[in-house]
Q: What sequence folds into this?
């Protein structure tokens, strides 16, 4: 049995090979015939025939060569494929003959496949495609966690990194990265350079080579080594004209000379795949981080590792646990409670967006399902009207499988046409999607319709055509030959077929409900989100970043002096309102989350800690941002370095850490900046601010006067009714009056920042809304199709009813009842599906529950109304059926 | 591909297979001659018919063909039985004997009846 199966398979493969090169086979067969004829002729001549006679006799013995060749070709080729091609030609002819049907089916399918392909191209590029590094599956993000303090993941100190690198046996290589904006001067306008601060091994770890010059040597990473820098191809071309002579020369970063050693290709991105690092410097050379290297307690380095091949997860965990324990034992002050863990790099980069993208992909898949149900319905309609054709075929001897094969060929052609148009739509969709994509979505530059995505589209169209093709083929082949021939295929829709069509329409309603509920929930979440008050007034506030080169402005007093001089100058400009200095800017720059202690209160038990977001501001900040003072006083010009240390706390901090007591006059200790530890007296309480994003409840916050805790830069916020660009140019002019080498960057308004902060929710809400709208239209078309077909099939019945005295309104009632039954079945199916779907999308909801009754009932009512509207046209036609005409018609 | 001539085809295939098994590598002409001889010229077929059989057997990888030179220095395609072909020959021969036995009995019964 097995041997036979193998032989059949081998024969099939042989046939395919021949089918691919038929000429060669023909030629060989001719040669073989010629040789056979020669041998036969020779035999004949030996028997005493003359040459010519011998040749003739040989041809007779062999048989007709042309016929033999024909048989040979048939045997060696693929007659099955040839009938398929015949079917395809026939299918194309059928589709041309019914342009209306073809257009609707192809367009519906193209819409479904196009939308799916476009979304898939995003999902593929962002989530599924391996990272653009060699053996990316070996790359892991290494991080520290502290279960006692509830810290799930944070960076690693340099000292711990060095020990980890020396002691482990599981990593082929380890490297660290940090990020810093440095100021490039000496080549035109001063510019901010996004600099990746790394250990030299990063490049060999990622197996990336420079396009010119060299990567860092291990010695470049030692403290005291001469400062070197690698430039990105983009920066090299933009700022140095792509001149190779730059290698070996020095450039000024933060007013310090760095020798350029290499140029990295533009395609190299690490660690942020969203933005481009423009330069790389060794860690000890960084003006800020360089001095932090010996501190073991700081969790500030991002560590990447390449695992050795064949390291099992269990072995990795065991070894990391061992090293963590050893570090904790050796350096209990800094390391007790801390453990080291890894996460695949891919997961760290795309982990956040993956669930939302997968939900979107699922949603768009539902749209395709609805499209398929619609086409299946159309095909069923046509199958009924083609019953006579099938009956004739069947009567002429076509087997059931032959008819099914022909119908499937037709749907395959339909599917491929839809697929092709869908791919064209997908190209367009990807282009228009990329303008909508949130800026903080990783890897968006890799989104394109490539071979993999095309393969997906092709697979989808094949699957879809199988899906919508099977039902009609099943019914068509099943039809009763005799009755079809007799009835002439005019009216016959079998009960099974009608049930199938009804079920498909109800299914469409159910699927549309899932999408509409999801879209409704997302819409409500989004409106909840944007109506959230951030806690500050965003209108008419311009924000700009200024960073001071640390080699030049190395003394904190210089920072404080710079900020007050700048604010004075801005104050003096016409049209500019209040202005303030702040680090970090809420929404835009994230948070600095710090632990703190309360003087005089008992130390906390293990496993809990007091945490708050730290902000350093100049006195006018609260007035500029409209943050209300609830108690005590704001900062003022007297809160300087020499005066007593003060702090302002937010309402949330007061509520959480000073329940039932007056926080004013209490004193807090927090260790930041690192050299300014010391108690600060709480002098006031201000209102809460959502500093991370609108979706997160306000965290406890503590403010300190910028003059007492200056930074090497920060943001200026200015209240002004002037346009952002004129505020920006005034700001630039003022900054350059103080120091012409200081760049002013990231100028934007606070309103724009808020707008940008909800980009991802807006993106998915928009997409899901679009899909839901598509689903609604498709479902309406589906209901329209089912009802109008059923009306046209029942014209005779309706005619008789009217003739027998049924009123028009009772006819209308009958049609509407049919519609509502369909809708109710659909809704009944839809509710549990929608509940399950909403639960999957739960992580995207804000301020609304996954089973929000209002959304569910609104969607159900809306769908019922749409269904009735879609049925109205055919119902209207049914009402006006003239019994005389209807009866004669049949 | 199964149609009414299946049995006849099968018979010829089996004969070709058996011939190659017994005689070693042969060209199409040689196989045809051999079958004619064995059947004592009772089976007068168009020799060309043999090629359909050869194609089928090659496709199933039961025999393989290669160009070579005949005794009298002519180019010809020589066929030889493969290992799978030999195995298959055993099974097919047994099948054949069984079926021909059954058919023989049926025919005898039919004659008597």
A:
């Amino acid at each position: 049995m097995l041997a036979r199966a193998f032989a059949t398979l081998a024969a099939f493969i042989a046939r395919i090979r021949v089918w691919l090169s038929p000429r060669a086979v023909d030629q060989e067969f001719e040669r073989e015939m010629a040789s056979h004829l020669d041998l036969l002729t020779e035999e004949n001549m030996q028997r005493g025939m003359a040459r010519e006679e011998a040749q003739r006799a040989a041809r007779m013995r062999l048989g007709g060569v042309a016929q033999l060749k024909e048989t040979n070709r048939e045997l060696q080729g693929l007659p099955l494929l040839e009938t398929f091609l015949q079917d395809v030609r026939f299918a194309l002819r059928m589709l041309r003959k019914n342009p209306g049907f073809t257009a609707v089916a192809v367009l519906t399918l193209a819409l479904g496949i196009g939308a799916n392909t476009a979304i898939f191209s995003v999902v593929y590029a962002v989530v599924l495609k391996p990272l653009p590094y060699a053996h990316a599956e070996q790359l892991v993000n290494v991080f520290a966690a502290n279960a006692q303090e509830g810290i799930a993941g944070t960076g690693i100190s340099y000292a711990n990194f060095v020990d980890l690198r020396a002691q482990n046996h599981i990593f082929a290589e380890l490297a660290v990265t940090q990020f810093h904006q440095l100021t490039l001067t000496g080549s035109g306008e001063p510019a901010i350079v996004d600099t990746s601060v790394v250990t030299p091994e990063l490049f060999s770890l990622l197996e990336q080579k420079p396009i010119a010059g060299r990567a860092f040597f291990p010695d470049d990473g030692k403290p005291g080594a001469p400062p070197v820098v690698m430039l990105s191809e983009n920066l090299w071309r933009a700022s140095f004209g792509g001149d190779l002579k730059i290698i070996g020369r020095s450039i000024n970063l933060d007013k310090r000379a760095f020798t350029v050693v290499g140029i990295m290709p533009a395609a190299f991105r690490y660690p942020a795949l969203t933005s481009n690092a423009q330069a790389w410097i060794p860690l000890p050379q960084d003006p800020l981080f360089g001095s932090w290297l010996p501190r073991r307690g700081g969790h500030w380095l991002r560590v990447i590792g390449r695992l050795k091949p064949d390291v099992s997860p269990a072995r990795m965990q065991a070894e990391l646990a061992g090293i963590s324990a050893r570090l904790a034992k050796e350096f209990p002050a800094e390391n007790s409670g801390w453990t080291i863990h890894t996460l695949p790099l891919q997961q760290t980069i795309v982990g956040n967006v993956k669930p939302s993208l997968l939900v979107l992909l699922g949603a768009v898949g539902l749209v395709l399902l609805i499209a398929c149900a619609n086409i299946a319905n159309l095909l069923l309609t046509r199958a009924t009207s083609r019953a006579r054709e099938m009956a004739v075929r069947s009567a002429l001897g076509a087997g059931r499988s032959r008819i099914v094969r022909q119908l499937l060929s037709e749907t395959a052609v339909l599917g491929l046409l839809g697929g092709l148009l869908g791919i064209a739509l997908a190209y367009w969709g990807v282009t228009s999607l990329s303008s909508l994509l949130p800026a903080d979505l990783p890897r968006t530059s890799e989104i394109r319709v490539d071979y993999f995505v095309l393969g997906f589209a092709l697979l989808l169209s094949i699957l879809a055509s199988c899906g919508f093709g099977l039902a009609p083929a099943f019914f068509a082949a099943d039809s009763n030959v005799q009755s079809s021939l007799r009835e002439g295929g005019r009216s016959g829709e079998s009960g099974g077929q009608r049930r199938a069509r009804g079920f498909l329409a109800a299914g469409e309603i159910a699927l549309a409900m899932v999408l509409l509920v999801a879209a409704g929930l997302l819409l409500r979440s989004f409106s909840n989100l944007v109506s959230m008050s951030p806690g500050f007034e965003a209108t008419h506030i311009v924000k700009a970043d200024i960073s001071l080169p640390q080699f030049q402005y190395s003394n904190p007093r210089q920072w404080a002096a710079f900020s007050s001089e700048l604010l004075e100058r801005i104050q003096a400009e016409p049209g500019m309102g209040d202005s303030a200095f702040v680090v970090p800017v809420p929404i835009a720059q994230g948070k600095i989350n710090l632990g703190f202690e309360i003087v005089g209160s008992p130390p906390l038990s293990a496993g809990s800690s007091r945490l708050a977001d730290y902000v350093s501001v100049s006195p006018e900040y609260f007035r500029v941002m409209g943050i209300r003072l609830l108690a005590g006083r704001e900062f003022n010009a007297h809160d300087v370095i020499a005066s007593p240390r003060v702090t302002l706390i937010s309402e949330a901090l007061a509520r959480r850490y000073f329940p039932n007591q007056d926080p004013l006059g209490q004193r807090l200790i927090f260790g930041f900046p690192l050299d300014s530890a010391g108690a600060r007296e709480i002098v006031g309480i201000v209102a809460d601010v959502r500093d991370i994003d609108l979706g997160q409840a306000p965290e406890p916050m503590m403010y300190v006067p910028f003059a007492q805790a200056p930074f090497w830069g920060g943001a200026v916020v200015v209240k002004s009714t002037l346009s952002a660009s004129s505020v920006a140019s005034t700001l630039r002019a003022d900054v350059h009056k103080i120091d012409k080498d200081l760049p002013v960057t990231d100028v934007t308004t606070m309103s724009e920042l808020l707008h940008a902060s909800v980009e991802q929710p807006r993106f998915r809400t928009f997409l899901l809304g679009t899909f839901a709208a598509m689903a609604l239209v498709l479902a309406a078309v589906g209901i329209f199709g089912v009802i109008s077909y059923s009306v046209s099939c029942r014209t005779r019945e309706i005619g008789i009813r009217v003739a027998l005295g049924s009123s028009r309104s009772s006819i209308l009632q009958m049609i509407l009842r049919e519609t509502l039954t369909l809708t109710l079945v659909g809704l009944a199916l839809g509710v549990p599906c929608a509940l399950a779907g909403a639960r999957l999308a739960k992580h995207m909801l804000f301020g609304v529950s996954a089973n929000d009754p209002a959304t569910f009932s609104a969607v159900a009512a809306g769908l019922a109304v749409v269904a009735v509207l879609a049925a109205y046209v055919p119902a209207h036609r049914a009402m006006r059926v003239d019994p005389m005409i209807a009866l004669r018609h049949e | 591909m199964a149609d009414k001539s299946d049995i006849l085809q099968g018979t010829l295939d089996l004969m070709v297979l058996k011939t190659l098994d017994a005689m070693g590598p042969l060209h199409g002409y040689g196989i045809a001659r051999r079958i004619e001889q064995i059947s004592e010229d009772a089976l007068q077929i168009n020799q060309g018919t043999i090629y359909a059989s050869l194609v089928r057997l090659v496709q199933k990888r039961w025999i393989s063909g290669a160009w070579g030179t005949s005794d009298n220095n002519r180019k010809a395609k020589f066929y030889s039985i493969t290992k799978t072909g030999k195995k298959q020959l055993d099974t097919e021969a047994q099948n054949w004997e069984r079926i021909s036995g059954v058919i023989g009995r049926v025919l005898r019964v039919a004659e008597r009846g």
